[in-house]
From TrEMBL:
CDD domains xref list: TGS_ThrRS (cd01667), ThrRS_anticodon (cd00860), ThrRS_core (cd00771)
A Pfam family reported for this protein in Swiss-Prot or TrEMBL: tRNA-synt_2b
Residue ranges annotated for the TGS domain, each copy included: 1-61
An annotated GO BP: threonyl-tRNA aminoacylation
Name of the protein in question: Threonine--tRNA ligase
Binding, Zn(2+): 337, 388, 518
Annotated localization: Cytoplasm
GO CC annotation, single: cytoplasm
Coarse class of the protein's main subcellular location: cytoplasm
Catalytic reactions on record: tRNA(Thr) + L-threonine + ATP = L-threonyl-tRNA(Thr) + AMP + diphosphate + H(+)
Length: 646
């Protein structure tokens, strides 16, 4: 007999070899029908895998993240089985679960495959799912694994097996399909009731542009048809909100192949939007005691060797710039922090001077592969609302808490109300990815958790998500469609001050190392604006909207009055445009609605005679007339209401 501890602390005895499904049936048949996997001693297992020793066990369903991940992983295998049935000779790369669904990278040889083929494969997946074939796990030797895929002729699996140690290899089989996989999987294909293959893309094998390009097929599945229907409705709404679509319609930004992939060009309205966000942050930073700085777009290669960025990112980034001077090399700036370290080091510092808070809207450059680029969310040049705080060890927690408050202020002002703080720590099994002493890492990790607890944040811990120089607190924000985005980050760093030999003179008249806090409430301006566009569907808060008003004269007879109104609005710092085109008023209104202008001021004979304006709100229609000074007061009150006080 073995002891099984359940999440509520209950300890029950079972015969050795009991499975998660057995435990579920012992509780209720209803639970057993919904169990997709089990967490055994912290590791996610197949619900049908025998447990042979004392363990803590949690049963996972669709309501658990790991349950959904297991469901989608099993669905990727179902997709592969359908492809193998329909396209003989297909070869398989990898088929992992992703945030929403799964994909499989496949080599179809000379066989054509496009969007039109997705429905045919979907139907085959549904047919196979109804067979309720069990997912069967088998441990295999390396020699047997190599033999199986050699006979099958699948070189991609053979390459993966070559990198695995004997005794760690498992196969999973369902129906007529067998795959190399570590699992876990759901009990059988019958759990999969609704299937949608969403799109087809190209993907280089193992992300290497020099390797063969495979066909990547994306999909998503659900245990109920209703859930798929709701998901597709959300997907349709997401398409309407796509920042690439709205960015073009609202004339915010564009891209040019001549300029280069992943390098956005900000149009006048988009630049106004950026400027307002930057000014909003600058005001908040001044109130919080930050000093503005500006650093170059390039730096000596040696600077990034000192910081460790070249070692960690140099091979995958833009290559060095060579000057006419032999041996002199520069890099496009991948991070602002090394530059800020040198600003701190530019003069002697006393313990009385600390904290030193340096802030910059600094543009950095990182080479992203072309297949990874996506609108503003994944670019090669982006601007960070970057700041670095250099403080004494006894000031770390207080400063960290102040930065948390600043991040939450930004979220509140821009309508992001649903967020979780992610404590991002080192990967305990891969310490070589990081720099710095263990004791400093442990101290920084402890301080981050204490600061988050003190502010009452809901936190989750993620191993392996730390920066290479220190742990961090990442804010995972849900948008209006329930999608999760990483916006805002705070990091504690004991390592860079050591590498740059930064010092301050303490009260004991001896030299000490400062601690460095990295922070970026927006993160990257490009990514933040992309998420904001999709969150509010282009209907920005009134204070932020590029065009806050549109002055629309009914005809040219009222042009002079319209110009007078527009001038008075401009003097009151109300921004927008005067539409004096020779178009009917209905067309002008429609165009302003499409441009999502919050207020339209319609001017005709009555308004000119009475010195008033007729007001129309975007998405609401006519709201009546007002004297111009009355409208200005009304507008300013509403605009200021959307600006949260720091």
């Amino acid at each position: 007999m073995i002891n099984i501890t359940l999440p509520d602390g209950t300890v029950k005895q079972y015969e050795q070899g009991v499975t998660g499904l057995d435990i579920a049936y012992g509780i209720s048949e209803g639970l057993a029908r919904n169990v997709l996997a089990a967490r055994v001693n912290g590791e996610v297992w197949d619900a049908f895998r025998p447990i042979k020793e004392d363990a803590t066990v949690e049963l996972l369903t669709w309501n658990n993240d790991e349950g959904r991940t297991t469901f989608w992983h099993s669905s990727a295998h179902l997709l592969a089985e359908a492809l193998e049935a329909l396209y003989p000779g297909v070869k398989f790369g990898i088929g992992p679960p992703i945030d929403n669904g799964f994909y499989y990278d496949v080599d179809l040889g000379d066989q054509e495959f496009g969007e039109d083929d997705l429905v045919r494969v979907e139907q085959k997946m549904v047919e196979l799912a109804r067979e309720k074939n069990e997912y069967k796990r088998e441990e295999v030797s390396k020699s047997d694994a190599l033999k199986y895929f050699t006979e099958k002729g699948d070189e991609y699996k053979l390459e993966l097996i070559d990198e695995l140690a004997d005794g760690t290899i498992t196969f999973y089989q369902q129906g007529n399909f067998t795959d190399l996989c570590r699992g876990p999987h759901i009990p059988n294909t019958g759990f999969i009731k609704a299937v949608k293959l969403t799109n087809v893309a190209g993907a280089y094998w193992r992300g290497d542009e020099k390797r063969k390009q495979l066909t990547r097929i994306y999909g998503i599945t659900f245990p109920k048809q209703k859930e798929l229907t709701e998901y597709l409705e959300r997907l349709e709404e997401a398409k309407k909100r796509d920042h690439r679509k709205l960015g073009k319609e609202l004339e915010l930004f564009t891209f040019s192949e001549k300029v280069g992939m992943g390098l956005p060009l900000w149009l006048p309205k988009g630049t106004i939007l950026r400027d307002r966000l930057e000014n909003f942050m600058r005001r908040a930073q001044i109130k919080s005691g930050y000093d503005p700085v500006v650093t170059p777009h390039i730096g000596s290669k040696q600077l990034y060797i000192t910081s460790g960025h070249y070692e960690k990112y140099g091979q995958d980034s833009f290559q060095p710039i060579h000057t006419p001077h032999e041996g002199e090399e520069f890099l496009l700036k991948p991070m602002n922090c090394p530059h800020h370290c040198e600003i701190y080091a530019s003069k002697p510092r006393s313990y009385r001077d600390l904290p030193v808070r340096l802030a910059e809207f600094g543009t950095v450059y990182r080479y992203e592969q072309s297949g990874e680029l996506h609108g503003l969310t994944r670019v090669r040049g982006f601007t960070q609302d970057d700041a670095h705080i250099f403080c004494r060890p006894d000031q770390v927690k207080e400063e960290f808490i102040k930065v948390i408050d600043l991040v939450l202020y930004v979220f509140k002002a821009l309508g992001f109300e649903d967020y979780t703080a992610q404590v991002s720590l080192r990967d305990p099994d891969n310490r070589e990815k990081y720099i710095g002493a263990d004791e400093l890492w442990e101290k920084a990790e402890r301080e981050i958790q204490e600061a988050a607890d003190e502010r009452g944040l809901t936190t989750v811990v993620e191993l392996g998500e730390a920066a290479f120089y220190g742990p961090k607190l990442d804010f995972m924000v849900k948008d209006a469609l329930g999608r999760s985005w990483q916006l805002g980050t705070i990091q504690v760093d004991y390592t860079l001050p050591e590498r740059f030999e930064l010092e301050y003179t303490g009260a004991d008249n001896r030299k000490h190392r400062p601690v460095m806090i990295h922070r970026a409430p927006f993160g990257s301006m490009e990514r933040f604006i992309a998420v904001l566009i999709e969150h509010c569907a282009g209907n920005f808060p009134l204070w932020l909207a590029p065009d806050q008003i549109a002055v629309l004269p009914i005809s040219e007879k009222y042009q002079a009055y319209a110009e007078k109104v527009f001038q008075e609005l401009s003097e009151a710092d109300i921004r927008g445009f005067l539409d004096n085109r020779d178009e009917k008023i209905g067309r002008k209104i429609r165009d302003a609605e499409v441009s999502k202008v919050p207020f339209m001021l319609i001017l005709g004979e009555k308004e000119q005679e009475t010195g008033t304006v007729s007001i129309r709100r975007h998405g609401q229609g006519d709201v009546g007339g007002m004297a111009l000074d009355e409208f200005i007061s009304y507008f300013q009150g509403e605009r200021d209401e959307t600006l949260v006080k720091l």
